[in-house]
Design goal:
Blueprint: H1 2-20, H2 32-40, E1 42-46, H3 50-54, H4 75-85, E2 89-95, H5 124-135, E3 138-143, H6 156-173, E4 178-181, H7 198-208, E5 213-216, E6 222-224, E7 239-240, H8 254-259, E8 266-267, E9 270-275, H9 293-303, E10 309-313, H10 324-342, E11 349-355, E12 358-361, E13 374-375, E14 382-401, E15 409-417, E16 422-427, E17 434-453, E18 458-465
Parallel strand pairs: 1-2, 1-10, 2-3, 3-4, 4-5, 5-6, 6-9, 9-10
Antiparallel strand pairs: 7-8, 11-12, 11-14, 13-18, 14-17, 14-18, 15-16, 15-17
The structure holds beta-L-fucopyranose.
Residues 57, 182, 184, 273, 280 line the site of beta-L-fucopyranose.
Length: 478
């Protein structure tokens, strides 16, 4: 009896707590820019350049500039396709390893200016940055420090060249939302490798564009997920320890990048890069190998559904257009997303915070707003029970942690209850979003419990859905 009174008091205190107390962050926490980045979830990568015309993946840097000659480049078509697919931005390969600049850089003689395209007056970065603005999506830039063309590559002067190129891009085409640093460091035209001045590159970018989020194997803002398949770890911590590591070959083990470090000192979330086709660049013979809408949705579950972001490469063809097969797949993906997530079945539940026999109604987790949240101060005894108004078929539950206060949940469990049976689902981390799918169950209630956490867990949203059965992930969550 005494225990119940205590629990009741504690639940009451907890509800007061929700409104009255400022929550202490559990470090590390994301910056404002990183938090906004998490919210974007899905955006395009665009690999385009001489390789598009030579059918290569890694150009040697000796390709004649005239090879770059798209016959009908239309960056508005790229931006429109992104918008229609639900992608929130486009990151373009401004310069890949072949060194060819898609803008007329003053610091290179291997650029669009030296090509036949538009009689040397063309500028892909100009056209794309404008198109992104027009369609209200973000504009980002990939720039490879490895340069197989630049005559100064392999000498200290090349670091000036690289810095100047970035300055050019930031001042002529900004704002740049995300900057993508490839860690590759091969030989240049004179057979030498470059010693990159990463410290300088980083401080220049921070100085000229503090709001840009910078990607590389180890951040500073976003990390590589450790594979090019678009798959984050089922356990995925946003923290990463970078001391003693460098970009490229000196990066942490790919498994660490995939899962993060549970006690990682810095918030460096994972981004899952993957191509819609086998290659990064367009190859006509891959026109029949475009991923299906279902495969794209599965990648969404394995990236965003594990707390990371989804960077999907859509390589334009030799016309400079997104191929119809890719567009069709993207439209299909968008429609799967809409159809399967539109109906949030927790709208038909009453949500309760429970502890033993004590029950407190709560609305914060089912109000479809990530701004309201519940902190479980006694999570070992507490659960969140969603009681459906009638038995309801579900096969997908989405949990969201209020990551602005740090990532806390280490293990969770979900009971799927009906009058005959109880199915237990177990998972590890949640992070910004955790999507769990399972064979369809008809349930009366679901109960979410946090079984292990690094600090009092804070959830901001729970949703439940009935997706097409074919979309359910094959392997149960962990
Ligand atoms: C890698 C590059 O070598 C590939 O060509 C591609 O650009 C991929 C996204 O990053 O490091």
């Amino acid at each position: 009896m005494k225990k119940h009174i205590l629990l009741a008091l504690c639940l009451h205190a907890c509800s007061v707590y929700l409104y009255a107390q400022t929550i202490q962050p559990y470090l590390p926490v994301p910056t404002k820019q990183q938090l906004d980045w998490h919210g974007l979830e899905f955006y395009f990568f665009v690999h385009f350049g001489p390789n598009t015309f030579t059918d290569k993946e890694w150009g040697h840097g000796d390709e004649p500039e005239d090879i770059f000659n798209p016959t009908g480049l239309d960056c508005r078509q790229w931006a429109r396709t992104a918008k229609q697919s639900g992608a929130k931005g486009i990151i373009i390969t401004a310069k890949h390893h072949d060194g060819f600049c898609l803008w007329p850089s003053k610091y290179s003689k291997h650029t669009v200016r030296e090509s036949k395209w538009k009689k040397g007056k063309g500028d892909v970065l100009r056209e794309l940055s404008q198109a992104c603005k027009e369609y209200g999506i973000k504009f980002g830039v990939y720039i490879s420090p490895w340069d197989r063309n630049h005559p100064q590559y392999g000498t200290p002067e090349y670091n000036d060249v690289f810095v100047n190129m970035m300055k050019e891009i930031f001042s002529n085409y900004g704002p740049i939302w995300e900057l993508w640093w490839d860690g590759a460091n091969g030989e240049g035209p004179n057979g030498k490798k470059q010693v990159y001045d990463w410290g300088r590159f980083e401080s220049v970018v921070r100085q000229i564009s503090p709001n840009t989020v910078v990607f590389s194997d180890i951040g500073p803002d976003i990390r590589w997920v450790g594979n090019e398949k678009g798959i984050a770890g089922k356990t995925n911590w946003n923290g990463l320890d970078t001391a003693g590591f460098t970009r490229g070959l000196g990066a942490p083990h790919t498994d660490t990048l995939n899962k993060g470090n549970i006690h990682g000192k810095t918030w460096i979330p994972a981004e899952c890069d993957v191509s819609i086709r086998p290659g990064w660049f367009y190859h006509a013979e891959e026109d029949g190998k475009v991923k299906t809408p279902e495969q794209l949705f599965n990648l969404y579950l394995k990236s965003v559904g594990r707390g990371a972001n989804f960077l999907l490469n859509i390589p334009p063809d030799r016309r400079g257009l997104i191929h119809a097969n890719d567009s069709v797949a993207l439209v299909g993906f968008r429609s799967i997303m809409e159809k399967n997530f539109a109906n949030n079945l927790v709208m038909n539940t009453s949500a309760q915070l429970t502890a033993g026999n004590q029950v407190l109604n709560t609305t914060q987790l089912t109000d479809q707003s990530v701004k309201t949240y519940v902190q479980l101060n006694h999570y070992q005894e507490q659960g969140i029970r969603l009681v459906f108004t009638k038995p309801t078929e579900i096969n997908c539950i989405v949990l969201q942690e209020a990551i602005e206060f740090g990532q806390r949940i280490q293990n969770f469990e979900i009971d799927l209850e009906n009058s005959e049976s109880l199915t237990l689902i177990k998972g590890t981390t949640v992070g910004r979003k955790r999507i769990v799918s399972f064979p369809t169950r008809k349930v009366n209630n679901i109960v979410v419990r946090i079984t292990q956490a690094r600090a009092a867990p804070i959830l901001n949203e729970i949703t439940a859905h009935k997706m097409a059965e074919i979309l359910v992930e094959e392997n149960p969550p962990e």
